[in-house]
Each structure stands twice: as C-alpha cells, then as structure tokens.
Design goal:
Helix content: 55-70%
Shape: globular
Largest sheet: 3 strands, mixed
Strand content: 5-15%
Number of helices: 15
Order of helices and strands: HHHHHEHHHEEHHHHHHEEH
Length: 390
C-alpha cells in the first residue's frame, strides 16, 4: 500500500487552506454583525458565505484523521496502532491547552483555555485507540448511531461546574464555563459526535486498501456522496417545512436557499455532517486521477497540517495586532476565539471583508514555502518517530 494517498492529502490541503479564511474572519471582523456571520437577518450574503464555506473544514479533517489511522494500521500491528493513537491523542490534548490556546489569546496567564478541534481530535484518537480492538460492525453501529442521532440529547442542558456538568460539556453541550475567578474554559467542540465521525473515517480507510479497484472505490464514493446529499435535502427539507418561515429573514428564493444550508455546527448536527461530508466524498471520487500544479501546491498543506495549523493561528493573531497598532484601533477583548477590534478606518463592512480576505491570502502564501520545506524534511527522515506526532 502507498505510504500516502495523494487524493486524501489534496482534500486535507483544501480544507486547511479554507480553514484559515474563517480564522482571518475571527481576527479581522468587528462588532456583533461579524461575531454572528450566519445570522441572515443581519449578515450580508458574502459574510455568510465566508463563514459557511469553512463548515467543511472540521468534519473533513476529523474524518480523514480516522482514515489516516486506518492507513497507519496497515503498516503496523494493532497494538502499535493503538499505542500511537493513545499517545498522539494525549499529545494533541496537551497542545490544544497550551500551544494552541496561547496562539489564540497571547495570554501567558492562560486565563482562557479553549477546547476546539485539536482537542476533539485528541480525545477521538484516545477513544479510537480502544475501538480498533472491537469488531468493525460495532464501530460502524456506534459511529452511525451517534453521528445521526446525537441531536436527541440537545434538550438536556447543564449550567453548573460539577464533575458531571463538566463531563456533559465535554461530550455534548458547547459553552464557556467560569471555573475560578482567573480561569475560564471554552468547550467549543463537544467531542461525542466527533468521536463518532473519526470512527467512521477509520472504517472508510478500507476503501483505500490495495485490493480495492479504483473503479469500485469511485462507485462507493459517489454512492456515499450522493446518498449523504440526498439524505440532507430530505431531512433538512422536512425540518424547514415543519418550522415554517424564519422570522426576520429577507424575502426571496436566494435567502431561502441560504437559510436551508444554515445548519448547526456546535455540536455538529446531523444536517451539518451530511451537508459537509457528502461533497467531500464526491470530491474524492473525481479528484483521484487529477494532477497539476494546483493540486501539487494544495498537497503541500495536506501533508503538513499540524505545522500549518499552529503557525497560521500565530501569524493571523500577530497580523491583527499589527493592523490595530497601525490604524489606531482598540482591541475589543477576548471572547473564546479572537481579538476583535474596532478602528475608525474599518467601519465599513466592505473594507472589513477586504481585510479578511487579504489577511487570509497573505498567511496562506507565506506558509507555503515553510510547509513545503518541512514536508520534504519529513519524507526524507521517516526514521524519526517523533515526526509522526507533528
């Protein structure tokens, strides 16, 4: 089996590049309008799209992390795979609460701990370390049951800081919790649906075994993609018809369409997962034999996602502070994700959106040579075990 599957690296590279757009929006957006980009009663269609397109990033990346685990297991024993998943998962949890949190906040006192996608991947890997010993049908049943049915738990809410409350925040309920006068924890990515998604991604890796013919794999991918999209349309359509018109939504079919795809990410609803994974399967189906300079460039990011993720947070944060200093702006305070700022120069939404896109493109381009050089180093030093954790 090939050590790397280029189509998977390509898809991972695409979502890594898109992901930076959302984080640029978080740092360069200002005011409540930009803090709620999916509020169609206030946000412009372009702002909505700027946020919506990045919905594909987290589920695709978590799913492909499971696939990568399966491919790793084809070259190692089950015990070695389990040990790798356990240790790497714990490492990622540590990274999220230290390196990544510091990048978001630049707060050396760590008064705000942010538990986001790296945390979710870490815990999912720890769980997958045990799942690999289970029969595949049990893993499949768990993944489908939780991914498609976890929304039945939405009505159960907690509001305290007891151990059971914190466990529920960890598993299913997003929110910020004030643990002490000096420590707030943001449970941005409740892990239950992400564990299920990674488990399904692990089983998905079977499609990339050497004995699976490309034509067979393509038919499976098209079936999964089309099936997911059709199921999304059916379920989402039934819900929209049941709820009726959204209060305050502008008139017109275009806004009705935007509202149709305006789904819940925290935690990821069944609509969210179907909407994002369906096109991802179709992308994999049709991109496998495509190769050009653009795909080669995107694969660079897909092969070095950890380094890219860490560096792009620090770069965007530093760039936003530089803009604040140069334009006489004022930081608006930290709220689980970014230093929004206000400045007289950027009181026009069009200027803000322009700044968001310029910051995004600049950071992606700056990181390209860094990622490319690091990717070459990794490929030339496979004997260095610690590189697999980066």
């Amino acid at each position: 089996m090939k050590h790397r599957i280029e189509s998977i690296d390509l898809l991972r590279g695409v979502v890594m590049v898109i992901m930076a757009l959302d984080h640029a929006r978080m740092y360069f957006g200002q005011g409540q309008l930009f803090a709620n980009p999916t509020d169609l009663t206030a946000a412009s269609p372009l702002l909505f799209f700027t946020r919506w397109i990045t919905h594909f990033c987290a589920p695709v990346f978590v799913f492909l992390s499971g696939t990568a685990a399966y491919l790793y297991g084809t070259r190692h024993t089950k015990r070695e795979l389990s040990r790798f998943l356990l240790t790497r998962g714990l490492w990622l949890i540590l990274v999220e609460t230290t390196i990544v949190t510091l990048g978001w906040t630049f707060d050396l006192t760590f008064g705000h701990i942010i538990l986001q996608v790296i945390w979710a991947i870490g815990i999912s890997m720890v769980c997958l370390a045990g799942f690999v010993y289970l029969p595949n049908w049990i893993v499949l049943a768990f993944g489908l049951l939780v991914a498609l049915g976890h929304n039945v738990l939405d009505s159960f809410e907690v509001h305290g800081t007891s151990l059971p409350d914190l466990l529920w925040y960890t598993l299913h309920q997003p929110g910020g919790v004030q643990l002490t006068s000096h420590l707030t924890v943001g449970f941005q990515y409740p892990v239950l649906p992400w564990i299920a998604l990674m488990s399904l991604g692990y089983l998905f890796g079977k499609l990339y075994r050497t004995e699976v013919e490309p034509g067979v794999r393509k038919r499976w991918l098209i079936g999964l993609g089309a099936g997911s999209i059709l199921l999304f349309i059916a379920l989402r359509g039934a819900l929209v018809l049941h709820r009726g018109a959204t209060p305050g939504l502008p008139d017109g079919a275009f806004y009705q369409l935007l509202n149709f795809v305006n789904v819940t990410k925290y935690p990821p609803s069944v609509f969210f997962l179907l909407m994002t994974m369906g096109p991802a399967f179709l992308f994999l189906a049709y991109i496998e034999k495509v190769k050009n300079r653009w795909t080669d460039a995107l694969i660079v990011y897909g092969k070095t996602p950890f380094l890219y993720y860490i560096l792009h947070i620090y770069l965007l944060h530093a760039l936003s502070l530089a803009v604040i200093a140069l334009t006489g702006g004022t930081p608006a305070g930290f709220e689980f994700g970014a230093d929004n700022f206000t400045t007289p120069l950027m009181n026009d939404p069009r200027i803000v959106l322009t700044a968001i896109y310029l910051a995004w493109i600049s950071v992606v381009l700056v990181l390209y040579p860094v990622c490319k050089r690091y990717g070459v180093y990794k490929s030339q030093h496979r004997e260095k075990w610690w590189l697999s954790y980066l």
